[in-house]
């Protein structure tokens, strides 16, 4: 195996032209450099240097090896820089999954922050999945990091070996059709007052559906669900059309259609957002850095949405 330290001396001799210059750059003695180059020749069984007057120059074999040396040393230098970036958490490839409203807001904002940071070499692969599927993907090793949620009225079980980190909380809004004949009176916030109303909900295979059923059940009735959609913008437009009422988490509301009023239900419902990863993964510097970026994005997005919806009330 070629000694990289000696290869560095040979490449430096090709670049600098004299043994004295090599010794000065590497902070060695000139005789020490000559000795190491002679040792390299013996190890390889090739003459790499030759004397021309008082100077030492490279033979054709020496020039070939020195050229390879420059490439090898450049790759080593690049590897060292990348290893340092990995230690600092500013480099690496990670797969992140998030439920759709978090992907559209928090993860998109996190990507903007990463791409706008010239010092970051983080690379992401983004997928969307509901929390149940995201936790399965984490457990199987298919993804590195997941954004999941849990409702205040529907606790979520976290599988063994998965660690979570809370990154924010958002309110769930009750969306009703704006009353045009109440002289500006607001819609009731009491869920029991909507026992006889038709309801619009997410599909029955996700936690958002369970949240609606649980909220109505605690208010003393079973909701009469007349429409189901995983797209909350569809739900709100159906509310605007008079199809029914709906419960919508804040991040899911991109736009409030004309004719829709948002009120906080009584009792209130909240959705807590978590970052989840396999427990050992949170020791990874890249995961830690990425988690910090996503948490900052969550804080910014939740604050902006809250301010927006407060103005609409």
TrEMBL record:
Keywords of this entry: DNA-binding, Transcription, Transcription regulation
Keyword Transcription regulation: yes
Domain HTH lysR-type per the UniProt entry, residue ranges: 2-59
Entry-linked PROSITE patterns: HTH_LYSR
Bilayer-spanning residue ranges: none
Domain of life: Bacteria
Pfam families for the chain: HTH_1, LysR_substrate
Family matches, as InterPro entries: LysR_HTH_N, LysR_subst-bd, WH-like_DNA-bd_sf, WH_DNA-bd_sf
Keyword Nucleotide-binding set for record: no
PANTHER family: LYSR SUBSTRATE-BINDING, TRANSCRIPTIONAL DUAL REGULATOR HCAR-RELATED
Family from the record: Belongs to the LysR transcriptional regulatory family.
Protein name as annotated: LysR family transcriptional regulator
Source organism of the structure: Nonomuraea purpurea
Top-level taxonomy: Bacteria, Bacillati, Actinomycetota, Actinomycetes, Streptosporangiales
């Amino acid at each position: 195996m070629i000694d990289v330290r000696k290869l560095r001396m040979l490449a430096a001799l090709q670049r600098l032209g004299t043994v004295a210059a090599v010794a000065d750059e590497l902070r060695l003695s000139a005789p020490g450099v000559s000795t190491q180059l002679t040792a390299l020749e013996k190890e390889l069984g090739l003459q790499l240097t030759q004397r021309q007057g008082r100077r030492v120059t490279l033979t054709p074999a020496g020039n070939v090896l020195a050229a390879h040396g420059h490439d090898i040393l450049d790759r080593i230098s690049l590897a060292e820089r990348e290893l340092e970036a990995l230690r600092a958490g500013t480099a690496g490839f990670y797969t992140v999954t998030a439920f759709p409203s978090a992907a559209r807001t928090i993860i998109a904002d996190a990507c903007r922050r990463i791409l706008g940071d010239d010092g970051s070499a983080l690379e992401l692969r983004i997928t969307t999945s509901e929390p149940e599927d995201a936790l399965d993907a984490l457990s199987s090793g298919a993804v590195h990091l997941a954004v999941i949620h849990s409702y205040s009225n529907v606790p979520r079980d976290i599988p063994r070996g998965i660690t979570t980190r809370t990154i924010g909380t958002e309110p769930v809004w009750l969306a009703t059709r704006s009353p045009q004949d109440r002289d500006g009176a607001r819609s009731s916030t009491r869920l029991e007052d909507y026992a006889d109303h038709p309801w619009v909900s997410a599909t029955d295979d996700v936690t958002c559906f369970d949240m609606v059923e649980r909220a109505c059940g605690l208010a003393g009735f079973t909701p009469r669900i007349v429409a189901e959609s995983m797209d909350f913008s569809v739900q709100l437009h159906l509310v605007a059309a008079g199809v029914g009422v709906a419960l919508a988490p804040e991040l899911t509301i991109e736009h409030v259609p004309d004719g829709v009023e948002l009120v906080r239900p009584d009792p209130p419902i909240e959705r807590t957002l978590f970052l989840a990863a396999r427990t050992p993964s949170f020791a990874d510097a890249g995961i830690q850095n990425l988690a910090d970026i996503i948490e900052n994005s969550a804080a910014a997005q939740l604050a902006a949405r809250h301010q927006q919806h407060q103005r609409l009330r």
